[in-house]
Protein backbone atom coordinates (compact mmCIF):
# COMPACT_ATOMS: atom_id res chain seq x y z
CA UNK A 1 0.00 0.00 0.00
CA UNK A 2 1.32 3.44 -0.95
CA UNK A 3 0.18 6.44 1.07
CA UNK A 4 0.82 10.08 0.17
CA UNK A 5 1.08 12.00 3.43
CA UNK A 6 0.43 15.75 3.44
CA UNK A 7 -0.07 15.95 7.21
CA UNK A 8 2.11 17.61 9.82
CA UNK A 9 2.66 17.95 13.59
CA UNK A 10 1.16 15.02 15.56
CA UNK A 11 -2.20 13.45 14.62
CA UNK A 12 -1.63 12.96 10.89
CA UNK A 13 1.99 11.81 11.15
CA UNK A 14 1.02 9.34 13.89
CA UNK A 15 -1.75 8.01 11.64
CA UNK A 16 0.64 7.36 8.79
CA UNK A 17 3.41 6.03 11.04
CA UNK A 18 1.06 3.37 12.41
CA UNK A 19 0.41 2.29 8.83
CA UNK A 20 4.10 2.55 7.92
CA UNK A 21 4.97 0.33 10.90
CA UNK A 22 2.50 -2.22 9.53
CA UNK A 23 4.20 -2.24 6.15
CA UNK A 24 2.73 0.60 4.10
CA UNK A 25 4.99 2.75 1.95
CA UNK A 26 4.47 6.32 3.16
CA UNK A 27 5.69 9.25 1.08
CA UNK A 28 5.79 12.34 3.27
CA UNK A 29 5.33 15.57 1.31
CA UNK A 30 7.17 18.50 2.90
CA UNK A 31 7.50 22.17 2.06
CA UNK A 32 11.00 22.69 0.55
CA UNK A 33 12.23 25.43 2.89
CA UNK A 34 10.88 24.61 6.35
CA UNK A 35 9.61 21.06 5.98
CA UNK A 36 7.09 19.60 8.43
CA UNK A 37 6.40 22.02 11.29
CA UNK A 38 7.14 19.08 13.59
CA UNK A 39 10.83 19.45 12.75
CA UNK A 40 10.83 22.91 14.36
CA UNK A 41 9.60 21.33 17.62
CA UNK A 42 12.78 19.27 17.88
CA UNK A 43 14.30 16.18 16.32
CA UNK A 44 12.93 13.87 19.03
CA UNK A 45 9.36 15.03 18.42
CA UNK A 46 9.75 14.51 14.68
CA UNK A 47 11.61 11.22 15.00
CA UNK A 48 8.98 9.48 17.09
CA UNK A 49 6.27 10.14 14.51
CA UNK A 50 8.05 9.72 11.19
CA UNK A 51 10.11 6.54 11.09
CA UNK A 52 9.70 4.17 8.14
CA UNK A 53 8.74 7.06 5.83
CA UNK A 54 10.21 8.64 2.73
CA UNK A 55 10.47 12.43 2.49
CA UNK A 56 9.78 14.34 -0.72
CA UNK A 57 9.96 18.12 -0.75
CA UNK A 58 7.38 19.71 -3.03
CA UNK A 59 6.14 23.28 -3.38
CA UNK A 60 2.39 22.88 -3.82
CA UNK A 61 1.94 26.59 -4.46
CA UNK A 62 3.47 26.12 -7.89
CA UNK A 63 1.94 24.55 -10.99
CA UNK A 64 4.89 22.20 -11.41
CA UNK A 65 4.67 21.06 -7.81
CA UNK A 66 0.97 20.36 -8.20
CA UNK A 67 1.58 18.44 -11.42
CA UNK A 68 4.10 16.20 -9.68
CA UNK A 69 1.67 15.52 -6.84
CA UNK A 70 -0.98 14.52 -9.37
CA UNK A 71 1.46 12.02 -10.86
CA UNK A 72 2.08 10.54 -7.42
CA UNK A 73 -1.63 10.33 -6.65
CA UNK A 74 -2.34 8.47 -9.88
CA UNK A 75 -0.62 5.38 -8.50
CA UNK A 76 -1.25 5.78 -4.78
CA UNK A 77 -3.64 3.84 -2.54
CA UNK A 78 -4.38 6.65 -0.11
CA UNK A 79 -3.94 10.35 0.60
CA UNK A 80 -3.83 11.74 4.14
CA UNK A 81 -4.14 15.47 4.83
CA UNK A 82 -4.65 17.47 8.02
CA UNK A 83 -5.35 21.00 6.83
CA UNK A 84 -8.41 22.98 7.85
CA UNK A 85 -11.42 22.40 5.60
CA UNK A 86 -11.11 24.22 2.29
CA UNK A 87 -7.32 24.32 2.01
CA UNK A 88 -7.10 21.27 -0.25
CA UNK A 89 -9.89 22.66 -2.43
CA UNK A 90 -7.95 25.90 -2.91
CA UNK A 91 -4.82 23.95 -3.82
CA UNK A 92 -6.79 22.08 -6.48
CA UNK A 93 -6.88 18.74 -4.66
CA UNK A 94 -10.45 18.38 -3.42
CA UNK A 95 -11.75 14.83 -3.13
CA UNK A 96 -13.64 15.10 -6.41
CA UNK A 97 -10.52 16.38 -8.21
CA UNK A 98 -8.35 13.61 -6.77
CA UNK A 99 -11.02 11.00 -7.46
CA UNK A 100 -10.93 12.03 -11.12
CA UNK A 101 -7.19 11.29 -11.13
CA UNK A 102 -7.47 7.97 -9.29
CA UNK A 103 -10.93 6.51 -8.53
CA UNK A 104 -9.36 3.74 -6.42
CA UNK A 105 -7.72 6.12 -3.99
CA UNK A 106 -8.86 6.49 -0.36
CA UNK A 107 -8.77 10.15 0.67
CA UNK A 108 -8.58 10.85 4.42
CA UNK A 109 -9.04 14.34 5.88
CA UNK A 110 -8.02 14.35 9.55
CA UNK A 111 -9.03 17.61 11.21
CA UNK A 112 -9.87 18.93 14.65
CA UNK A 113 -13.61 19.41 14.26
CA UNK A 114 -14.44 17.60 11.01
CA UNK A 115 -15.45 18.86 7.58
CA UNK A 116 -18.98 19.92 8.59
CA UNK A 117 -20.62 21.70 11.51
CA UNK A 118 -20.36 25.24 12.89
CA UNK A 119 -16.85 24.71 14.32
CA UNK A 120 -15.38 23.08 11.20
CA UNK A 121 -13.13 26.04 10.35
CA UNK A 122 -11.98 26.79 13.88
CA UNK A 123 -8.35 26.51 14.87
CA UNK A 124 -7.80 23.98 17.60
CA UNK A 125 -5.40 21.70 19.40
CA UNK A 126 -5.62 18.71 21.72
CA UNK A 127 -6.74 20.65 24.81
CA UNK A 128 -9.60 22.26 22.85
CA UNK A 129 -10.90 18.94 21.52
CA UNK A 130 -10.80 17.46 25.03
CA UNK A 131 -12.71 20.41 26.42
CA UNK A 132 -15.43 20.30 23.77
CA UNK A 133 -15.82 16.52 24.09
CA UNK A 134 -16.84 16.68 27.75
CA UNK A 135 -13.66 14.97 28.91
CA UNK A 136 -13.35 17.29 31.89
CA UNK A 137 -16.94 16.54 32.92
CA UNK A 138 -16.15 12.92 33.76
CA UNK A 139 -14.72 12.58 37.30
CA UNK A 140 -12.32 9.69 37.77
CA UNK A 141 -11.30 10.00 41.43
CA UNK A 142 -12.97 10.57 44.78
CA UNK A 143 -11.04 13.83 45.19
CA UNK A 144 -11.20 14.75 41.52
CA UNK A 145 -9.61 17.85 40.03
CA UNK A 146 -9.77 19.30 36.54
CA UNK A 147 -6.37 18.68 34.98
CA UNK A 148 -5.29 18.07 31.42
CA UNK A 149 -3.98 14.60 30.57
CA UNK A 150 -0.24 14.14 30.62
CA UNK A 151 -0.23 13.14 26.93
CA UNK A 152 -2.03 14.49 23.85
CA UNK A 153 -4.92 12.10 24.39
CA UNK A 154 -7.40 13.35 21.81
CA UNK A 155 -4.70 13.65 19.13
CA UNK A 156 -3.77 10.01 19.69
CA UNK A 157 -7.42 8.94 19.64
CA UNK A 158 -7.97 10.71 16.33
CA UNK A 159 -4.84 9.15 14.84
CA UNK A 160 -5.84 5.64 15.89
CA UNK A 161 -9.35 5.92 14.45
CA UNK A 162 -7.98 7.41 11.23
CA UNK A 163 -5.41 4.62 10.83
CA UNK A 164 -7.99 1.91 11.49
CA UNK A 165 -10.45 3.50 9.07
CA UNK A 166 -7.80 3.84 6.36
CA UNK A 167 -6.87 0.18 6.74
CA UNK A 168 -10.45 -0.93 6.23
CA UNK A 169 -11.10 1.53 3.38
CA UNK A 170 -7.92 0.54 1.51
CA UNK A 171 -8.80 -3.15 1.84
CA UNK A 172 -12.28 -2.36 0.50
CA UNK A 173 -10.83 -0.36 -2.41
CA UNK A 174 -8.53 -3.22 -3.31
CA UNK A 175 -11.47 -5.62 -3.39
CA UNK A 176 -14.03 -3.37 -5.09
CA UNK A 177 -11.77 -1.17 -7.20
CA UNK A 178 -13.35 1.97 -5.80
CA UNK A 179 -11.98 4.38 -3.19
CA UNK A 180 -13.86 6.66 -0.82
CA UNK A 181 -13.60 9.79 1.30
CA UNK A 182 -12.92 9.63 5.06
CA UNK A 183 -13.85 12.61 7.26
CA UNK A 184 -11.96 11.91 10.51
CA UNK A 185 -12.49 14.49 13.27
CA UNK A 186 -10.32 14.41 16.38
CA UNK A 187 -13.20 15.77 18.45
CA UNK A 188 -15.45 12.94 17.24
CA UNK A 189 -12.80 10.39 18.15
CA UNK A 190 -12.47 11.49 21.77
CA UNK A 191 -16.23 12.15 21.99
CA UNK A 192 -16.81 8.47 21.19
CA UNK A 193 -15.02 7.69 24.46
CA UNK A 194 -16.35 10.50 26.64
CA UNK A 195 -20.01 10.95 25.65
CA UNK A 196 -21.36 7.72 27.24
CA UNK A 197 -19.69 8.60 30.56
CA UNK A 198 -20.80 12.24 30.46
CA UNK A 199 -24.37 11.04 30.07
CA UNK A 200 -24.09 8.64 33.00
CA UNK A 201 -22.37 11.23 35.17
CA UNK A 202 -24.76 14.11 34.58
CA UNK A 203 -28.08 12.61 33.47
CA UNK A 204 -28.24 9.32 35.32
CA UNK A 205 -26.20 10.39 38.37
CA UNK A 206 -27.16 14.09 38.27
CA UNK A 207 -23.54 15.22 38.64
CA UNK A 208 -23.04 13.51 42.01
CA UNK A 209 -19.68 11.66 42.09
CA UNK A 210 -20.91 9.49 44.96
CA UNK A 211 -23.46 7.99 42.57
CA UNK A 212 -21.10 7.53 39.64
CA UNK A 213 -20.07 3.87 39.32
CA UNK A 214 -16.78 4.74 37.63
CA UNK A 215 -15.60 6.91 40.54
CA UNK A 216 -14.14 4.16 42.72
CA UNK A 217 -12.60 4.69 46.17
CA UNK A 218 -10.56 1.49 45.86
CA UNK A 219 -9.26 2.17 42.35
CA UNK A 220 -6.92 5.14 42.64
CA UNK A 221 -3.42 6.48 43.21
CA UNK A 222 -2.28 6.73 46.84
CA UNK A 223 0.61 8.60 48.40
CA UNK A 224 3.20 6.72 50.44
CA UNK A 225 4.98 7.95 53.57
CA UNK A 226 7.90 9.32 51.55
CA UNK A 227 5.81 11.26 49.04
CA UNK A 228 5.90 8.66 46.26
CA UNK A 229 2.76 7.00 44.89
CA UNK A 230 1.26 3.55 44.38
CA UNK A 231 -1.64 2.73 42.03
CA UNK A 232 -4.07 0.04 43.13
CA UNK A 233 -7.28 -1.21 41.54
CA UNK A 234 -9.38 -3.40 43.82
CA UNK A 235 -12.33 -3.62 41.44
CA UNK A 236 -13.28 -7.23 42.19
CA UNK A 237 -14.44 -8.21 45.66
CA UNK A 238 -11.85 -11.00 45.83
CA UNK A 239 -9.06 -8.42 45.74
CA UNK A 240 -10.67 -6.34 48.45
CA UNK A 241 -10.93 -9.51 50.54
CA UNK A 242 -7.22 -10.20 50.08
CA UNK A 243 -6.32 -6.67 51.14
CA UNK A 244 -8.55 -6.89 54.22
CA UNK A 245 -7.09 -10.25 55.19
CA UNK A 246 -3.54 -8.93 54.98
CA UNK A 247 -3.94 -5.49 56.55
CA UNK A 248 -7.02 -5.43 58.79
CA UNK A 249 -4.90 -6.36 61.81
CA UNK A 250 -3.20 -2.97 61.63
CA UNK A 251 -6.26 -1.08 60.35
CA UNK A 252 -9.35 -2.93 61.69
CA UNK A 253 -11.84 -0.56 60.03
CA UNK A 254 -11.00 -2.18 56.69
CA UNK A 255 -12.94 -5.26 57.82
CA UNK A 256 -16.19 -3.31 58.26
CA UNK A 257 -18.90 -5.42 56.55
CA UNK A 258 -20.30 -2.29 54.91
CA UNK A 259 -17.26 -2.39 52.65
CA UNK A 260 -17.33 -6.12 51.83
CA UNK A 261 -18.98 -5.65 48.42
CA UNK A 262 -18.28 -3.34 45.54
CA UNK A 263 -21.69 -1.74 45.95
CA UNK A 264 -21.07 -1.17 49.63
CA UNK A 265 -17.70 0.44 49.04
CA UNK A 266 -19.22 2.74 46.43
CA UNK A 267 -21.88 3.80 48.91
CA UNK A 268 -19.17 4.86 51.36
CA UNK A 269 -16.57 6.28 49.00
CA UNK A 270 -15.09 8.92 51.28
CA UNK A 271 -14.65 6.49 54.18
CA UNK A 272 -13.07 3.78 52.06
CA UNK A 273 -10.80 6.19 50.26
CA UNK A 274 -9.75 7.72 53.56
CA UNK A 275 -8.88 4.31 55.01
CA UNK A 276 -6.81 3.37 51.99
CA UNK A 277 -5.05 6.74 52.07
CA UNK A 278 -4.19 6.13 55.72
CA UNK A 279 -2.96 2.63 54.97
CA UNK A 280 -0.63 3.66 52.15
CA UNK A 281 0.81 6.53 54.17
CA UNK A 282 1.99 3.97 56.73
CA UNK A 283 4.92 2.73 54.66
CA UNK A 284 7.49 4.02 52.23
CA UNK A 285 7.33 3.51 48.49
CA UNK A 286 10.04 0.85 48.56
CA UNK A 287 8.37 -0.97 51.46
CA UNK A 288 5.10 -1.10 49.52
CA UNK A 289 6.87 -2.33 46.42
CA UNK A 290 8.46 -5.18 48.32
CA UNK A 291 5.28 -6.04 50.19
CA UNK A 292 2.84 -5.91 47.27
CA UNK A 293 5.22 -7.88 45.04
CA UNK A 294 4.40 -10.90 47.21
CA UNK A 295 0.62 -10.57 46.70
CA UNK A 296 -1.84 -11.15 43.87
CA UNK A 297 -3.30 -7.67 44.24
CA UNK A 298 -3.62 -5.47 41.11
CA UNK A 299 -1.10 -2.72 41.78
CA UNK A 300 1.75 -0.83 40.15
CA UNK A 301 4.40 1.68 41.14
CA UNK A 302 3.70 5.15 39.79
CA UNK A 303 6.77 5.93 37.70
CA UNK A 304 7.29 9.64 37.10
CA UNK A 305 10.95 9.65 36.14
CA UNK A 306 13.64 7.61 34.38
CA UNK A 307 13.05 4.66 36.68
CA UNK A 308 10.41 3.70 34.14
CA UNK A 309 13.15 2.44 31.84
CA UNK A 310 14.70 0.32 34.59
CA UNK A 311 11.48 -1.53 35.36
CA UNK A 312 12.14 -5.23 34.65
CA UNK A 313 8.82 -5.79 32.91
CA UNK A 314 9.19 -2.73 30.68
CA UNK A 315 12.67 -3.91 29.75
CA UNK A 316 11.53 -7.48 29.09
CA UNK A 317 8.85 -6.39 26.61
CA UNK A 318 11.53 -4.75 24.47
CA UNK A 319 9.53 -1.80 23.15
CA UNK A 320 12.25 0.79 23.71
CA UNK A 321 14.76 0.84 20.87
CA UNK A 322 16.88 3.27 18.88
CA UNK A 323 17.24 3.91 15.18
CA UNK A 324 20.17 5.32 13.28
CA UNK A 325 19.54 7.87 10.54
CA UNK A 326 20.36 6.92 6.96
CA UNK A 327 23.52 9.04 7.02
CA UNK A 328 24.64 7.35 10.25
CA UNK A 329 25.02 10.68 12.07
CA UNK A 330 22.06 10.59 14.47
CA UNK A 331 20.28 8.11 16.65
CA UNK A 332 16.64 8.54 17.66
CA UNK A 333 14.76 7.04 20.58
CA UNK A 334 11.88 4.88 19.39
CA UNK A 335 9.01 2.93 20.92
CA UNK A 336 8.17 -0.03 18.71
CA UNK A 337 4.69 -0.79 17.39
CA UNK A 338 3.09 -2.00 20.65
CA UNK A 339 1.58 -5.26 19.39
CA UNK A 340 3.62 -8.42 18.87
CA UNK A 341 2.96 -10.52 15.74
CA UNK A 342 3.93 -14.18 15.80
CA UNK A 343 5.07 -13.86 12.17
CA UNK A 344 7.19 -10.84 13.07
CA UNK A 345 6.89 -7.16 12.15
CA UNK A 346 9.59 -5.07 10.50
CA UNK A 347 8.53 -1.88 12.28
CA UNK A 348 12.00 -0.39 12.70
CA UNK A 349 13.24 -0.74 9.14
CA UNK A 350 14.15 2.92 8.59
CA UNK A 351 14.90 5.92 10.76
CA UNK A 352 13.10 9.25 10.35
CA UNK A 353 14.08 10.83 7.03
CA UNK A 354 15.95 14.07 6.63
CA UNK A 355 13.96 16.75 4.81
CA UNK A 356 13.71 15.79 1.15
CA UNK A 357 15.95 12.76 1.60
CA UNK A 358 14.10 10.69 -1.00
CA UNK A 359 13.20 13.46 -3.45
CA UNK A 360 15.57 12.34 -6.21
CA UNK A 361 14.61 8.67 -5.84
CA UNK A 362 10.87 9.34 -5.99
CA UNK A 363 11.06 11.78 -8.90
CA UNK A 364 13.35 9.42 -10.82
CA UNK A 365 10.69 6.75 -10.45
CA UNK A 366 8.27 9.20 -12.07
CA UNK A 367 10.59 9.31 -15.09
CA UNK A 368 12.47 12.55 -14.39
CA UNK A 369 16.14 12.76 -15.35
CA UNK A 370 18.77 14.09 -12.93
CA UNK A 371 18.97 17.28 -14.96
CA UNK A 372 15.20 17.79 -14.69
CA UNK A 373 15.34 17.35 -10.92
CA UNK A 374 18.22 19.83 -10.68
CA UNK A 375 16.17 22.46 -12.53
CA UNK A 376 13.19 21.85 -10.22
CA UNK A 377 15.46 22.27 -7.22
CA UNK A 378 17.00 25.47 -8.58
CA UNK A 379 13.49 26.89 -9.12
CA UNK A 380 12.31 26.04 -5.60
CA UNK A 381 9.81 23.43 -6.79
CA UNK A 382 11.45 20.64 -4.76
TrEMBL record:
InterPro entries associated with the record: CoA-transferase_III (IPR050509), CoA-Trfase_fam_III (IPR003673), CoA-Trfase_III_dom3_sf (IPR044855), CoA-Trfase_III_dom_1_sf (IPR023606)
GO molecular function: transferase activity
Gene3D superfamilies per record: Crotonobetainyl-coa:carnitine coa-transferase, domain 1 (3.40.50.10540), formyl-coa transferase, domain 3 (3.30.1540.10)
Record-linked SUPFAM superfamilies: CoA-transferase family III (CaiB/BaiF)
Keywords associated with the record: Transferase
Pfam families reported in the protein's UniProt record: CoA_transf_3
Stated name of the protein: CoA transferase
